[in-house]
Amino acid sequence: MNIALIGYGKMGKMIEAIAEERGHRIVLKIDIDNQGDFTRENLEKAQVAIEFTKPETAFDNVCRCMEFGIPVVSGSTGWYDRLEDAKRLCTECNGTMLCASNFSLGMNIFFEINRQLARLMNRFPDYSVEIEETHHTQKLDAPSGTAITLAESVIEEISRIEKWELDGSSDMNALPIHAIRRGDVPGTHQVKYSSEIDDIEIIHTARNREGLALGAVMAAEYIYEKKGVFSMKDFLI
Fold it and tell me: What is the pLDDT at residue 224?
């Protein structure tokens, strides 16, 4: 495939290396210094775009790809308050998009484990639940999009939990998410249930960011020549 990279920071460079290892070609690289190159003419050289930028630019980037008729995979987080708008545009444009808070195959398996555990714990109100996530100090959004995805599954499955809140809360119906920024940590997510008798914990620890980059490239391979709105769950199943 011919791939356009929208965002060429550490993740973009890692995606480039993995994509080329898998036989693909990078035909466009858009970063903060060459925004003028983000044109229909240049983007149409690509068959799919992979977007990893900042929360404040991600929505516009995704929409521009769809308006230009290019399938787009987005791994940016912190902009999901506008995700439904992007999905509507995708339908209107007869376009293609796959957005995910985390492209790691291991994490997407972890998402399913988290949902199943929450479904079981709905029967046991003596257990409180909290989420802790740790990332590198350069990560801009808090909590992470991955932590929010985990929290949303807990909220959907446990009837006594109505919302999530960053850090501690006196609201018994709120799920606390603790966001820690430390060093160069790729990402660690923990979901913990506690009672007076015992604790139940599930943890996913990323050893590096290569799993995210590989998953993004595989997601691009998956949506290539498809139409519609997709998720990593569609890809896995």
Answer: 92
Domains in the chain with CATH codes: 2-103+210-236 (3.40.50.720), 105-205 (3.30.360.10)
To the question of pTM greater than 0.90 for the whole model, the response is no
Q: Which of 29, 136, 139, 178 is catalytic?
A: 139
3-12, 90-99, 118-127, 205-214: least confident range: 205-214
Mean of all residue pLDDT scores within the chain:
94
Determine which one of 135, 136, 192, 204 is catalytic: 135
* Closest CA relative to residue 158, chosen from 132, 187, 193, 205: 193
Q: Which residues contact 211 (CB under 8 A, 6 or more apart)?
A: 103, 104, 105, 106, 107
Phi-psi region of 11 (alpha: psi -120 to 50; beta: other; left: phi over 0): alpha
Residue 135 appears among annotated catalytic residues: yes
